[in-house]
């Protein structure tokens, strides 16, 4: 079996060596070269054709974002970003995921992290997963228009320039199984995703109309400090409201609520309203937030119409929670099709467990969801 050939890119000689040493300790990984900046990285990628690239964001000559954008348009390589925990680093990381980066690993203590070994396991895991992933395609022209050409002066102005995506919803081309509705019942959409999720969320949330008549509770596996940047970016591009959820907040239709990194997100009933409850109990299968925890909380809600969505991600988080939702009442599930998943792990687990009512490619999920709700 051939080794995973990795090009390591960082402006710090120390970080280049340490990252290379961490990767080289694994018999299935080979560090084929190192680059000091984005321009050198692009040149070496063309020459060496690595299987995976690790790419720092802050570098001289050409930074990681500019290098990534050029690579994804000219010579796509599965890329793991090496990010800092600063607000600027979080914003840049979200942008990198938008541009097509596979995933990211955070430096524990700044640009030169002497304790980088703390994230060694995650780094190796992400490199292996990136090598096994499907190549990231460049952003569609329409998506580039959304993110780059839309007015950016305020989120409200951006939303005002967008046409409603599905008003009225078109008749379904194939029969759609609808959840039985009762007059006066509340609606709730719960959604779980992981690796590849930020870009997938952008595709789904920016395609929903501003008058979407259900709240959306979301778990995206992501460390603390990054989910707020993700929510703000998605809010600026969407007709619906997108926010990092706060403990005790009441959930309103037309708003997507993203669990903050490091906190489990549950939805409880409070005097006939849906309310967010955040806590820091033990991680579930290594995850906090956990999709299972969110879905299990939804399973305990009564007199609520529910839709559950599982999209791209490693592992099987969400399957147990969806199973509990199915056992406790009526829920309609949508699972992302393998053809569009960056990692077909979480959707595969739900599908193989027989829990998928609908399987849809990513770009069809928003339309399908709107048809099911209406």
Q: Would you kindly provide a written description of the structure presented here, covering whatever features stand out?
A:
It is a single chain. Helix 1 links the parallel strand 1 and strand 2. It is elongated, with a radius of gyration of 21 Å. Helices cover 35% and strands 21% of the residues. Helix 10 runs parallel beside helix 11. The strands form three sheets. A seven-stranded parallel β-sheet has the order 8-9-7-6-12-13-14, with helices on both faces. With 374 residues, it is α/β, with parallel strands linked by helices. About 13% of the residues have low confidence. It has 13 helices and 14 strands.
Task: Please state the CA-atom Rg, rounded to the nearest Å.
Answer: 21 Å
Overall mean pLDDT:
86
Report the principal-axis shape. Answer: elongated
Please identify the structural class as seen in this structure.
alpha/beta
Helical content class? 25-40%
Main sheet properties = 7 strands, parallel
Strand order of the largest sheet: 8-9-7-6-12-13-14
Fill in the keyword field for this structure.
alpha/beta, 374 residues, 14 strands, seven-stranded parallel beta sheet, 21% strand, elongated
In short:
This protein is of the alpha/beta class.
